[in-house]
Write a structure and sequence with these properties.
Layout: E1 9-19, E2 22-33, E3 37-41, H1 48-55, E4 63-68, E5 71-72, E6 84-87, H2 99-109, H3 114-127, H4 143-156, E7 161-165, H5 173-185, E8 192-196, H6 200-204, E9 208-213, E10 216-219
Parallel strand pairs: 3-8, 3-9, 6-7, 7-8
Antiparallel strand pairs: 1-2, 1-4, 4-5, 9-10
Amino acid sequence: MADGRRAVELSARDLHVSRGGVEVLRGVDLTLRGGERVALTGPSGSGKTVLLTVLAGFAVPERGAVLLDGRPLVDHGRGLRPRLGVVFQGYGLVALLTAAENVELPLLAAGLPTAQARGRAREALDAVGLGERSEHLVEELSGGQQQRAAVARALALRPDVLLADEPTAEQDVAHRAGTLDAILATARTGTAVVLATHDPDVAARCDSRVHLEAGLLRPA
């Protein structure tokens, strides 16, 4: 990679996951490599969020495995979280902290010095057009601004893999393109990007598409 980052590979092998007695994922296989930008499409309720949750290591499949650079996620220990940037629809922001503090939090947890964490947070918030609101509490931000803060938090990690669930769904027209640009730009430094989306314009910006329906994943 141009910045010296080694190549990364995240692979899902024969994933089976059930929710409420229904098999949501039925033998899903997927391989993601550094620099790839993949759109994950499918109807509502098809399991896109479930798949991202498993790929991120927040849920364990009943069968199958997720490997990062050939090793199960659990084998990476504390070193796993900084390598995976995740944007879920619930955002997961701490309401009593500012936007900047929310972005800094995982960086500090990963051991970055305070000054470096602050610098990365400012850079990421500027990238999504939220620099002027960086010192506002989360509860003072609109839904779209909160979503951009969640995107900035993932970007600031400079992760090997970025998993984003409908990351532009709450954005107005003025900010949608800029947010998507910031996400997709990470691929240029070797990040593997997966975007779950219903928006055909977002999917069209990716290099490839996979479609999840009836528990099965196919090229789109």
